[in-house]
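<discrete_fold_record>
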Amino acid sequence: MWIYFILINIVAFFTMFIDKHKSKNNKWRIPEKRIWSLAILGGATGAAIGMYSFRHKTRHLTFAFFLPFLSLLHWLLISYLVINDINVINEVNQFIR
């Protein structure tokens, strides 16, 4: 799970970098659907960091508000899963003893 989460965020970060670079050079852009797909699939943190690092799409209200919000939701979900896994491991250890 961690490897997937790290990789999807790296891809989302560099997607924002590439799209910013293409916008500066008036080249074909990465569709916003693709950026949102990466964000929804777990890359919201990487996309948000990329957005602010490269000052890309920061004027788009949907990006400026929903990417950080989606990132927060992802971190809450991951925290819940980690805590739940720790509780399951503790219950198994108590059962074994």
About this structure: The mean pLDDT is 89. Helices lie at 2-24, 32-53, 61-96.
